[in-house]
Write a structure and sequence with these properties.
14 helices, Phosphorylase Kinase, domain 1, 7-stranded mixed β-sheet, Rossmann fold, 3-stranded antiparallel β-sheet, elongated, alpha/beta, binds iron/sulfur cluster, 15 strands
């Protein structure tokens, strides 16, 4: 069979033209020109569109029985485009060692975002679900229970809560809108700190004209919209002299940040870090609280075009990790007993009530599986589409 869909994909979508129908009649084969390989940033889409399974993905081949996998709808966290995806998760009770592991990512059709395509790099983000995860809370490098970690954090920070603003907060651009909202609210209501530092987790990358955005974060636009004027301008100055710091989904020790930021962060004695994966910040923190990957929680992200899209909980968490909104509530309750735990959906409703401008009139149900447009302002990197640094 030589339907030539893969040839047309390379000619018309990736516009790289590596594949050709070679020879004639019953000798026809699909091949590359001599000396060329099928090597473009979107090459695995040819596997998705091959109707007979003649093309297979080297990464997924022989890794799992496809009929043991369950597809879960989600959004790619690989860049600000927010391609719609299906994540295939192992889902067999009797094979519990592998349960919850993600094995592959394929594009989910959404004409307003990614049509039926995604980039090859985006297919690798399933490793963020499986690898480098933190399974257990830590206090001073020792594994402890959640209760133990939180009561230790309370002891470390309780004194500082007497002085409003002495505990500062750092938030990453991969957090959901609901997490950003609850984090800012916790900093304000529990620690008396009205501002929050926003930090990138990865350097800008090479974007293109098809899907890949220069901004490698899933929700910069959403986090900026939620935090608004409460975002600090000079992060190093904000961190300098603080008695304690709470970090959610960011890594202030990452080499990409200016040394002034890294030094100011390192100078803070009491560090509490919420993170799904091991980072340089978790390595040095007094308290580490394990949170969820993008597949283990509900929430919303806003992509580069201002489209709000939902994450769906498609897998149980790793080890003792908790959904970020649940972890934040448990932490806040140690300081303010009346702080209520909210689901992501409840937090979204409160967010909409508080931010009528950008989120006005939105409901969680209306966002559905394909997302809707918001009135959020363009994020600070929109002008950098296609930038290299
Ligand atoms: S273009 Fe961006 S959002 Fe889309 S699949 Fe690639 S990394 Fe993910």
């Amino acid at each position: 069979m030589a339907c030539s869909r893969c040839v047309r994909f390379c000619d018309e979508v990736s516009k790289t033209g590596e594949l050709r129908l070679m020879n004639r009649g019953d000798h026809t084969t699909i091949d590359t020109f001599a000396g060329r390989e099928l090597d473009n940033a979107y090459s695995v889409n040819t596997v998705d569109i091959c109707p007979v399974g003649a093309l297979t993905s080297r990464d997924f081949r022989f890794q799992a029985r496809a009929w043991f996998l369950r597809d879960s709808e989600s959004v790619c966290p690989g860049c600000a485009t927010g391609c719609n995806i299906d994540v295939s998760v192992y889902d067999q009770v009797e094979l519990s060692d592998y349960n919850g592991q993600a094995y592959r990512i394929r594009p989910r059709e959404n004409d307003a975002v990614n049509k039926s395509w995604m980039c090859d790099a985006g297919r690798d983000v399933y490793t963020r679900i499986n690898s480098n995860r933190i399974d257990q809370p830590f206090a001073h490098g020792i594994e402890v229970s959640w209760d133990g970690a939180i009561s230790r954090a309370h002891k470390l920070l309780h004194g500082a809560t007497e002085i409003p603003g002495s505990v500062v907060g750092v938030l990453g651009f991969d957090c959901t809108n609901e997490e950003a909202y609850l984090f800012a609210r916790m900093m304000r209501e529990v620690f008396g700190t009205s501002q929050v530092a926003l930090l990138a987790s990865r350097p800008l990358q090479q974007g293109d004209d098809l899907l890949i955005d220069a901004d490698p974060h899933a929700n910069r636009r959403g986090v900026e919209a939620v935090i608004g004027d409460a975002a600090v301008g000079d992060v190093a100055e904000y961190l300098k002299g603080a008695q304690g710091v709470i970090v959610l989904g960011a890594d202030p020790r990452h080499y990409m940040h200016a040394s002034a930021i890294r030094d100011a962060f390192s100078g803070i004695k009491q560090q509490v870090v919420f993170s799904a994966t091991v980072t340089e910040a978790t390595e040095g923190a007094a308290i580490v609280l394990p949170t969820s990957s993008f597949l283990e929680k509900e929430g919303t992200w806003i992509n580069r075009d201002g489209r709000i899209q939902r994450l769906f909980r498609g897998s149980r968490g790793h080890g003792e990790s908790r959904e970020d909104v649940v972890a934040l509530a448990a932490f806040a309750q140690a300081f303010v007993e009346t702080w209520t735990e909210r689901s992501a959906i409840d937090a979204f409703d409160e967010l909409v009530a508080d931010h009528q401008g950008p989120f006005g009139g939105l409901t969680y149900d209306a966002i559905g599986k394909l997302g809707v447009e918001t009135q959020t302002a363009a994020s600070s990197t929109d002008v950098l589409k296609g930038a290299t640094s």
